[in-house]
Amino acid sequence: LADDKKNQCAIIKLIFKHYLSHGKSLSSSTIFSLPDDLLSSIKQCLTKHEFHLKFYDQAQEYVLKYMLQMCYPKFLIEQQNSPETKRQALTAPKFTPMHRRCISIRKKDVFEKFKQQSNLS
């Protein structure tokens, strides 16, 4: 993704839309939040227009957690209501990482942590 200017622009706009322009912050969530230093770093990169690989790692983590926070409760309800959804999820194409680097373990850890926290509440 780092070489694809169109995708870079789309991701930067997504983060800007949900983070800077509305003053929203995942750190205010009681269910799931990003560390303040990560949010600060993302904001700094956006403000200074410094878009490098480290920024994309941070952006991907932000987007993943944002999607989990927004979509996971709905996903859970749908999963409980329909066994068909489970089969579709198993055959759905896998998410492609933003650049070729092994981050699937981190994604799995984040998802498992989120599931545990959701089950506790």
Characterise this structure.
- The protein is mainly alpha-helical and 121 residues long.
- The chain has one domain.
- Helix content is 69%, strand content 0%.
- The protein is built from 5 helices and no strands.
- Helix 3 packs across helix 5.
- It is elongated and about 45 Å long.
- The N and C termini lie far apart (36 Å).
- 8% of the residues are buried.
Keyphrases for this structure?
121 residues; elongated; single chain; mainly alpha
Put the structure in a nutshell.
With 121 residues, the protein is mostly helical. Helix content is 69%, strand content 0%.
Give the total of beta strands: 0
Order of helices and strands: HHHHH
Strand content: under 5%
Low-confidence stretches: none
Shape: elongated
Structural class: mainly alpha
The total number of structural domains is 1
Rg: 16 Å
Alpha carbon gap, first and last residue: 36 Å
Query: Considering DSSP H and I runs of 4 or more, what fraction of the residues is helical?
Result: 55-70%
Topology:
Blueprint: H1 5-20, H2 36-48, H3 53-81, H4 83-91, H5 104-120
Helix pairs in contact: 2-3, 3-4, 3-5
